[in-house]
Amino acid sequence: MYPYDSLADTFCRYGRLNLTGTVLSKRKLLKLVESHYVRGWDDPRLYTLIALRRRGIPPGAILSFVNELGVSTALTNIQIVRFEQSVRRYLEQTVPRLMLVLDPIPVIIQNLPDDHMEEIELPFSPKDPAFGTHTVPFTRTVYIDRTDFRAVDSKDFFRLAPGKSVGLLKVPFPIKATSFDKDVTTGKVTAIHALYEQPEEGTIFKKPKTYIQWVSSAKAIEAEVRIFNPLFKSEIPDAVEGGYLNDINPDSEEVLPNAVIEPGLEEVRKRAPWPEEEGEKG
């Protein structure tokens, strides 16, 4: 018989952590996979560890989220949006930023020569100079996102429209839209014509109200981008009449096949993993 204080065993009690707006039960996840609601256990719309890894969430972001919550012996239900906010804060401090245009429209800057090539320096992080910088080309034709242009202007819209100026991120001077081309069949804008508003020497430069992302046509990297929305429509899928399978969001995945990324992606790849000390090393 041993005295009580000589026992080496330690017992820890802890509560279960649940995320609302999804399911974490292995039985329910298996049903989603086998019924082809998702493409596998690593589908980014799930919240398995391998799905989070595939989504690009590093281990440190998960640990940071758990540390924010603290330890509890009670059952804890946390909204997905809170988890995503925590991950976003972690990524802002640990990984580089690049310019990406999801649904590109070419902008032809008519008062620049065809062979215009200007190197623009961009920081990998707007808040931490230690991340370093890289250069991207600024050319006569650049891509902007379709949501950053309106054929018909309005007072509450501060991006590009006919007769309106907008800044291109880190480019010295703004551009002003003068006209645009449309597909007669679909009605979609296919190209925008603009002027580079470089002021004459001695004149005052008027800073634009808004700056938007852009990618040069010269070294744009084509990509298919998938935007993942919540897999379920409600906060508690199990509470929906008929069960969680009746709560599947039909728009949980958006595929954008024609996105373009700036050439800084190549340097980011070379310097991977991000974060360097504990990134995706497998």
Notes on the protein architecture:
Helix content is 17%, strand content 27%. The protein has 282 residues and is of the alpha+beta class. Strand 8 (165-168) and strand 9 form a beta hairpin. The longest helix is centred in the N-terminal third of the chain and has 15 residues, at 80-94. The model has no long low-confidence stretch (mean pLDDT 91).
The shape is elongated
By DSSP, the count of extended strands is 14
Give the biggest sheet. Answer: 7 strands, mixed
> What is the rounded Rg?
25 Å
Average pLDDT over all residues:
91
Note the total helix count. 5
The amount of beta strand, in percent, is 25-35%
- Considering DSSP H and I runs of 4 or more, what fraction of the residues is helical? 10-25%
Which strands sit side by side, in order, in the main sheet?
11-8-9-10-4-7-12
In whole angstroms, how far apart are the ends?
48 Å
Topology of helices and strands:
Elements: E1 17-20, H1 26-34, H2 49-55, H3 59-69, E2 76-79, H4 80-94, E3 100-101, E4 104-109, E5 117-123, E6 133-139, E7 141-145, E8 165-168, E9 175-182, E10 189-196, E11 211-212, E12 215-216, E13 221-228, E14 253-261, H5 264-270
Parallel strand pairs: 1-2, 4-10, 8-11
Antiparallel strand pairs: 3-14, 4-7, 5-6, 7-12, 8-9, 9-10, 13-14
